[in-house]
What we know:
The chain is an alpha+beta fold. It has 3 helices and 8 strands. It has one domain (36-164). It has helices spanning 3-6, 55-64, 105-133, and strands spanning 40-46, 48-49, 52-53, 67-68, 94-95, 98-104, 146-149, 160-163. Strands 1, 4, 5 and 6 form a 4-stranded antiparallel sheet that branches.
Amino acid sequence: xxxxxxxxxxxxxxxxxxxxxxxxxxxxxxxxxxxxxxxxxxxxxxxxxxxxxxxxxxxxxxxxxxxxxxxxxxxxxxxxxxxxxxxxxxxxxxxxxxxxxxxxxxxxxxxxxxxxxxxxxxxxxxxxxxxxxxxxxxxxxxxxxxxxxxxxxxxxxxxxxxxxxxxxxxx
Length: 171
């Protein structure tokens, strides 16, 4: 072995610095949300609509367990979060008639399950009504509630098959 081969550092010892690409510029999102603390979930709640306070909606959300988020609760976000300057919700993180609220993850999951069950009960009721209206001469087939995506698959087989389910409250 030559001296050059003895002094050579193994390739595994070499450290390559990773180069990160610069992200292209894009306009900032109006509802950029900071990451919530562990065990919490953030959601934007409508506090006003068309310049008028939406007391019904905000009251309902507060009774469900949502609590407004103040900027002091969010540290190290990188920039100052927009806040409401005046009115009942002064000092709360908010923009464009919406306020940022937090809810414990357990309540959020229970709430999601409740609305999922409500939606399933409605769909079962609709299916029962359709079955009752069906007759032997012109039967109504079972409703198909599947989504299939077959774009880009050369064998033209479904790539994604997903039950439609209600992910969140529509309001």
